[in-house]
Amino acid sequence: MRLHRLDLTAFGPFGGAQSVDFDDLSGAGIFLLHGPTGAGKTSVLDAVCYALYGSVPGARQSGQGMTLRSDHAATGTRTEVRLELTVAGRRLEITRQPPWQRPKLRGRGTTVDKAQTWLREYDATAGSWKDLSRSHQEIGEEVTQLLGMSREQFCQVVLLPQGDFARFLRADAEARGKLLGRLFDTRRFAEVEQRLAELRRATEARVRDGDTALLADAHRMQQAAGDAMELPELAPGEPGLAETVLGAAAVARSTARELLTVADCRLAAAESAHAAADRALADARELDRLQRRFAQARERAEWLAERTEAHQAAQRRMERSRKAEAVAPALELRDAADAEHGRAAAAEARARARLPETLADAGAAGLAAAARRAAEELGGLESARRAERRLAELAEERAVLDRQERADDDVRHEAETWLADWEAARTGLQARVDEAQEAATRAEQLAVQRDPARRRLTAARQRDQFAADTDEAQRRALASAEQAVAARAHWLDLKEQRLNGIAAELAAGLTDGAPCAVCGATEHPAPARRTDGHVDRAAEERALTAYQQADERRADAERRLGTVREALAAATAEAGDAPTARLAEEAGELEREYERMRAVGSRLHAAQEEMRRAGDERERRVAAQQETAVRSASRVAGRERLESERAALERELTRARGTAGSVAARAAQLEYRGALLTDAADTARAAEESAQRLKDADARLADAAFRAGFDTPVDAAAALLDDDAHRELQHRLDARDAEETAVRAVLAEPDTADAARRPRADPAAAERAAADAGRRLREASSAQDAAARRCAELDRLSARATDSVHGLAPLREEHTRVARLAGLAAGTSADNDRRMRLESYVLAARLEQVAAAATARLTRMSAGRYTLVHSDDRSGRGRSGLGLHVVDAWTGRERDTATLSGGETFFASLALALGLADVVTDEAGGVRLDTLFIDEGFGSLDDQTLDEVLDVLDSLRERDRSVGIVSHVADLRRRVHAQLEVVKGRSGSALRQRGTG
C-alpha cells in the first residue's frame, strides 16, 4: 500500500482546505511530521484512517462522526477527506464526508445531511477515473479485503504508536494476549476452547441425566414391587449403580411371578363358588315369580265373576248402537240441510233490507233485471273516467314544472353565492397546502436526527444498567472468592487430619499372616486404632470437590465481572457522560417535534385533494348556471300546451257528471246499486233451493228409522253413540274378554300350578349367598389383576433399565474423551504441564515470529547488544506462553524487558513495532506496506543511538518504503530534510511541505 495524496477540508483543527503530497514526501524515504502541541499532527494520521475505514482510532471516534468537523470552518463549508493511494496494484481514490449540520435552505435553523462516501479507480488505458461505489458498506468491505487487515490492525501496523509497544514490553502475559488477540484475530481458537467446554458440560449433564433416569426407573420398580424389592441408597454417578439396580429388579420379578401363581389359584376357586350361588339365586327367583303369578290370576278371576251383570248390559248397549249406525247418514244429511236452509234465509233477509222499498218484495227474476240495467249505465261512463284521469295528470305535470322552476332558482342562487366566495376559499386552501409541504420537509430533517438520539439514549440506559450490574458482579465475585478460600482451607484441614490418622486407615486393612504394606511384617501386635473424628478418603474427596466447585464459581463470577465491565465501557463510549434524564428529555423533545411536524405534513395529500375538489366544484357550479337558463326557456312552451288541453277536458267532464260531484262519484253510485241488486237476486234463489232440499231430507230420515227397527227418528238418534263413546265402550268389552282369556291361560299353566303346590320361595336368602360369593370373586380378581400388573410393570421397567444401562456405556466413554480434550485446551489438564490454553499457544507462536522479526532490527539499533527472545515459562501462578525477554550480549544473561532504560525501551519497542508490522502484513496475505508512520519516542535517544535508529529506518527504503516520523525533537529537523509542518493559528491549522523536490 502506497499513499499518494491527501486532501482535507474543515477536518479537525484544519478550518480550510489542506493537501499533502505523499509522493513528494516519500521521495526522500524518510520524512518528518512536526509542529507545536495541539497543532494537529495526529489529525493528519486520523484523516488517513478515516478515509480508509470511515472512523478514527480509539476514543477520538464519537458522536457518529459529528465531532470530526473543524470548529474553525465556515458555516457553508462541508467537511471532506479525500485520499489517493495504490493498493494491490490498483490506484484508488476514496472520498468521505461525515454527517454535518448545515443551515436550512428555507427558513431558520439547521438540518443534518447524511454521511457520503465515494470510491473511484483510475483507468490507465482510458486515462480517467471511473466510479466504483457510493455505498458505505461496499466501500468498507472492499478496502478491508484489499488491505487484508482491520482498522485496529492498520493502526498498529501502519500508524505505529510507540507508547503502546513500550507498554507491551512491560505488560504481563494477559495484557499481551489481549493485544495480540486483536491483531491476529484468534477468536476462533477461543471459540474452540469454549465449544469443548460446552461439550464437556453437555456430556456430563447427559451422563447424570441417564443415571437419574435409571434411578427413577429403579424407584418405580420398588414402588411397583412393594415389599418384594429392597433398594440401597444410591446417587447418580456412583460406581456399581447399574449392576445393583438390575440385580434388585431380577429378584423383584421372580417374587412377583410366584405371587401371581397363588392369585390365579384363588381366582379359579372363587369363580366356581360364584357360579353355583348364581344358579341357586336364579332358581329361587323363578319359583317366587311363578307362585306370585298363580295367586294374582286367582284373585282376578274372582273379581271378574262379581261384575258379570254390568258386562252384559254393556253388550246390549253396543248392539243398539250398531243398529242406529244404519240411520246415521240420513240424520247427518237432514241436519246439514236444515243448517244450510237457515243460513240461506238469513242471507236473503239481510240482502233485502239494503234494497229500496220499491224493490223489497220483488222476486229473484225482477232483481236480476234491475241489476242488468245498472251495469249498462255504468259502462257508458268509461270515457269520462279517462278524461278525469288525464286532467289529474295535467295538474301533476304543471306542478312538476313549478317544482323544476323553483329548484333551478335555488341552484342558480346557490351557484352565484358560492362563486362569490371562490377567491377567498382558494387562497385559504393554497395556504394549507404550503404549510403541510413545509412541515413534511421539516419532518424528514428531524427523522435524520432521531436515530442517533435514540441510540445514544439506549446506550445511556444500558450504561446505567451496566453500572448497577458491575457493582452486583463485584459483590458476587468477592463473595465467591471468599467461599473458594474457605473451601480450600477446609479441604487442606481435612487432608492434614487424614495424614495424621493415616496409620489407623492402613491398619484397618491388616490381616493376620498377611504382610504389612508399610513394614512387611506378618505379625501385627499393636495396630493403630481410629479415633473419634477420623477423616477418611471419601470425606477428603468431598471437601476437594466442594473446593473445586467453589473455585469454578469464583472463576465464573470474575469472567462475568469482566464481561459487564467491557459492556459498561462500550455503552459509556457510545453515550458519553451526559445524564440519561437529559438525553431522554432531548430525545423526547426531538420525537415530539418530529411527530408534530409529521402530523402536519401528513395532511399534505388531504389539502391537495381538497384543493382539487374545490376546483372541480367551481367548474360544476358554472355549468349548473348555464343549464338552468336553458331549462327556464323550455318550460314556457310546456305551460301553454298544458293549459289548452285542460280546458277541453273540463268541458267533457261537466257533461258526464250530471248531478254528481264527479265521474267517479257517479260511477260509485251505479256500482253500489248493481252490487246490492245482484246480491239480493242470488240470496233469494239460494233460499228457495235450500227449502226444497230440507223437505227431501225429512222424508228419507223417516224411512231409514223404520227399516232399522226404531219407532221414530228421535229413538234412532238417542241410540246412536258418538266416536269417543263408541271407542270407550268397545275398549271396555275387549279388555274384559282379554282379561278373562289371560286368567284362564295362567291358571291352566303346568309350571305355575306346580309352583303353587310347592313350599314358599325365599329369594332374599339366595341373594345374600350370591352377594357373598360375588364379593369373594371380586377380591380374588382384584388380587390377580394387581399381581399381573405388578409383573407386567416390573418387566417393562426392567427392560427400560437394561436399555438405559446399555445406552449409557458409549456416553460415558464420550464424556471421558471430551473432558480430556477440554481440559487440555483450557490448560487445566495434568497432561498440559505448562497450563497453556489453546489460544495462548497460537499467540505464543505469533509472538515468537514477532520476536524473531524484531531482533533483526534491534540488533542494528543496539549495535549488536540486545536480542529479543520469546519465553513460554510460567509467570507466578499464571499460565505460560506469552513471555518476552531481552538477551544482553555484554553480560550474556537474559532479563525481563521491563529492566530496559527509557531510550532502550524506545528502540526496542520500535523494533518490535516494525517486526509486528511485517508479521501482520504476512498474516494479511502479503499486502505490501510502502508507507509507515512512527509516532514519538525519539527524544529519549542519544545522538549515536538516534543515528543508528535512523539508519535502520533509512534501510527501509531498500524495500521501496517511506517512513513518516511524528516527533517534537528539534534535532530531527536537521537530520530529516523532507518535512511536513503543521502550523496552528487562531483561524485553524495549516500544512506546509519543505525539503521536497
Characterise this structure.
With 997 residues, the chain is an alpha+beta fold. The strands form four sheets. Strands 2-1-4-5-8-9 form a six-stranded antiparallel sheet. Strands 10-14-15-3-16-17 form a six-stranded mixed sheet, with helices on both faces. A hairpin with a 6-residue loop joins strand 6 (100-103) and strand 7 (110-113). Helix 7 crosses helix 8 (241-306). It is flat, with a radius of gyration of 62 Å. The mean pLDDT is 77.
DSSP strand tally: 17
Query: How large is the radius of gyration?
Result: 62 Å
The biggest sheet, with number of strands, parallel, antiparallel or mixed sense and barrel status, is: 6 strands, antiparallel
Low-pLDDT stretches: none
Which structural category fits the helices and strands?
alpha+beta
Mean pLDDT: 77
Assign an overall shape: flat
Report the span from N to C terminus: 22 Å
Helices, by number, come to 26
Beta-strand residue fraction = 5-15%
Helical coverage, percent range? 55-70%
Q: What strand line-up does the widest sheet have?
A: 2-1-4-5-8-9
